[in-house]
Structures are given as C-alpha cells and as structure tokens.
Amino acid sequence: MEVRVEDIDESARPPVVEEPAELDGIFSIDPRVFEWELVYDVSDPIFQLEPTLVEPDLSRYSVIGLPQLDTYIPDDLLPDSLLVHDIDNITRVHFGDSDTQCRRPPVRRYVRIYPKPSGQHGESQSAYEGRDTSKAARSAHLYLQSTNRLGSGSHSFCTSATVAVKTAHKECGAHLMLDKEATAYNAFPRELMEDTSRGPAVVPKFYGYYGALNADGTLHSERHTLQTYCDIDETCYVDWPTRLFLVEECGRPIQPYYMTREEREKVVALTERLHKAGFVNGSPYRRNMLSQPGPLSVPREERSQYTPSYRIIDFGRAEVLSLLPETRHEFFGDCCDADMMKTKRSLFL
After folding, report:
1. CATH 1.10.510 domain locations along the chain
2. pTM for this prediction
3. Distances from the Cα of 54 to the Cα of 40, 58, 61, 77, 102, angstroms
4. In terms of CATH architecture, what is 250-349?
5. CA angle, 224 then 229 then 235, to 5°
6. Cβ distance 2 to 160 under 8 Å?
7. What Å distances lie between residue 93 and 79, 107, 211, CA to CA?
8. CA-wise closest residue to 159 among 171, 141, 144, 142
9. 10-residue block means of pLDDT along the chain (349 residues)?
C-alpha cells in the first residue's frame, strides 16, 4: 500500500555526514509536533486528538508525483515515533466506538521497535525506550490508504508510496511472522541493502518496524505464546493492531520464463551472498524475488529495465545464524542447502 511519510523533527537532527540528500524531497517540517515526542505520557497531545466529522484532506494520502524513497537512512535519522493517519483502519487500532461514527479517525501513535540503537539489548525493549533521552525524539507522519495497495500475500498486505508498508493479516501466526521478519532486518548489515564493491544490494533498505501504543502509553504487544501451541503457521483469528514494517519498494516479482540464464544466475548469486552473510530466506519463491530497472549505482533517470537489478524479499521464515545457539549451527547449514535447492528450482536452474 502506498504510504506518504513526512518528517516533523528537523531541528532535532544530529549532525551526520552521510545524511541522504533526497530527504528534503520526501520529508516536510512541522515543528509543532516536536514537544509531543519527548516521553511516553498519556497527557501527550496526541491522545487528545479526537475523531471529527470534518472530511479528511485526501490529497495528503496521494502518492502521485512523490519520489520513491530508495536512499539508505542511518538508524539515528529514522523516526522514533510515527503519527499514523489511517483513513481505512488498516492498522486496526481501536480507541473507542466513536471511531466508526466519524469521517476522520483519530491519529494513531506508533513507536519504533527496530532497528535498535547500537548496544541496546533485551527483547521486550523497543528502540524508542532505549533511545538517548537527552536528545529530542524524532517523529514523522504516515498516511495509509487501502487504494494504494501493492499486493497481498498469504500472511500480509503490502502497501507503498515513498516506502512499502507491510501489515499482518488477522491471524496470530501472521503477527509472529512479521515480528520474525523485522528481527531479520534488524540483523542485516548495511552492505546487504546497498550496491557495494562486493556486489549489488541483496535486500530492500529497512526504514523501521513500528508498534502501536495503547491509550495508557504502553506498547501493544499482545501475542499468543508457545504455551498455547501457536507458531507462525497458526491461523487463530485475532483483531490485534498490526505492527508496521517499512521497507524500500523494489519493483515487481520476476518472470524467469522471460529471463536469460545469466539473469537467473544473478538471482542465485544474491542467495549465495545472503547465506555467506549468515541469513536464510526460507521462502525462495518467484514472488519473493523482485526485479527493477538498474543498475542501482546510477541515478534513477539513467536506470533501465534492460539492465535490471534484483532483490530478495519476505523473511517471515528466515533463519539468522547470529541468533541461533551454537548447537544449532549445523542446522543452519542444512537450511542453506534447502534454500538454495528451492531457489534454483524456482529459477529453472
């Protein structure tokens, strides 16, 4: 689904040499929101935003003419929190019955879970909680609308604008799968997201994983546990607020029937690099291998579909070597073998 993101905390930006030049074209400034983002506080003005009968400004949701965000953004420049304008209730955040009686729903507040600041540990702690509180938090507006949907998978929807936003279906396993994918992206090194001297980008650039706040300012984290025998394949119906997974939009699924052998082998090479870096995709199907005009190392206007770039997506079944106990490292090798076999089969190799 297409999403429009607007930065609202420019004055708090720390000096960073590699700040993306494209940000100005994608982020606009609203310093009025600056004071809202310092701490969790139920008296925060964001919780005072009530639904109204005023028609929303639909132009805010339009992605027509917006540049696609494909610049790497360092972790310390990503928003710490999002003010989500969700005209179709894609997020499924419920604050009261009045929501459904009004033309404009309340703004939902989300905070960043991943990527976490360097040195921060603890599964229950979000990036927002672990940030440097001596610095003002960074915030952004996010506009969601169902008409901007990119596509739908078996467990999730994916939407885009300047970024692609992935949300979970109403199944407990789908939420666990989205959590697992975000954990993998949190572990990806930057060199897998960008063209480097070692090779082309392998995965989309990661713009953060965000969770909804409850009305009392706590992070919504409801999940079925292993004690209830629920895992990523379970289909228990749930109506939990979905978390938001923001990544770069990287084109469309490949069609290997129309690809040369050399082009298909380039996709295999991406899988090999992924394995060497300590990651297994787990779902190496054609729908999870994307093609876009390339090469990515040249300006956008110089890229061509005749020199395509490829990317691997959907890591809801991923295995991350660095997160496995040493006793399961041999298991990781078996996963790599199975992953490569499925990859070659999908590519007719």
Report:
1. 250-349
2. 0.79
3. 28, 12, 16, 33, 8
4. Orthogonal Bundle (1.10)
5. 65
6. yes
7. 20, 10, 10
8. 144
9. 47 36 29 26 38 58 77 87 83 60 68 81 65 78 75 54 83 90 96 90 95 86 71 80 92 94 97 98 96 90 93 96 92 96 97
